[in-house]
Structure formats: structure tokens, C-alpha cells
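User: Please predict the structure of the protein below. I'd like the answer in C-alpha cell form so I can feed it into my own downstream comparison script.

Assistant: Understood. Taking the following sequence of 156 residues as input:
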Amino acid sequence: MGGLPVTFRKWETQYFPAGELVRADEPIAGFDELEDRLLADHPRMRRILLRLRPGWPLHRYYLHWSDGTDLMSLDRRVAAGTATEEDFTGAVVGEPYRTSHPACGAELRVIELSVAVPLFSDGVERSRAHSYRRECPVCGGRLTGNALEFIAPETS
């Protein structure tokens, strides 16, 4: 399996630094290689693989920061084995999601906040403090929900 091991509370994950494509020795549920390639170098996100329960398939999730954390430095600390829980303080967990914008009808593929993956004990507080994408990239109208990032390149 690729990636670097990082443990959050009781959750063993594989962390993928910028530029490293997600790979595993087994299938990854709902994995889209194109999306992975589009987001591999994202300045506010890092990808992780996680198995929520023994016997369940691996899933790819995203750690997202909106506080300006230097993720290249984090990548180096994770690779050196010196990253601490404090390095992930500003992160929330997201997952790919398809939605549409009611005002213009645009079909959007986003990374949406995931409240179902309890990596952090203070997840509710983190989600309240986090910044979200609130404008449709097609028409500029207001979006509802908790979109962290858009997957496809923006058109505006």
C-alpha cells in the first residue's frame, strides 16, 4: 500500500502528500483516479485512505484546511515521522459528493464536509470554525451546504 501511516485517535490511515497518487493493494470504494489526479497537488487538501471497520473496504477521504496551514511542511513532518496531533488542528474531513445548484442548474462535483468520519474528537467545533465555498463557480450565486472545494476546474 502507498502513502504514509498516520493515526488519528484509534483510526489508522494512509496519508498521501502532495503529488503522490493514491494507490493500494486492494480496491478503494468509489475511487476515481481522475479526481485523485486533479486533487493530488491541492494547496488546502491532503488525501487519506481509511477503513472504518474491520472487513469493510478502504475509502478515500480528504483532510481540508482553511486556516493557511503550510501543507508542504506538514508533508515533510509526516514523511519524517515527526508530525503531531497539533499539525492537524485546522483540518476537517471531506468526501466527494455530487450536487446541483438550484439557481442555475449547474451539476457540481465537490468535496463536502463529512460528519460521519470521526477522526477528530472536536469535529463539531472544527466544522464551525472552518471556511466553506459559498459561491457557485458557474453563476456566482449563493450555495448552501458545506462544500470545502470544487473538484473540476472552475469556469469563472
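That's the full C-alpha cell string. The chain has a mean pLDDT of 92.
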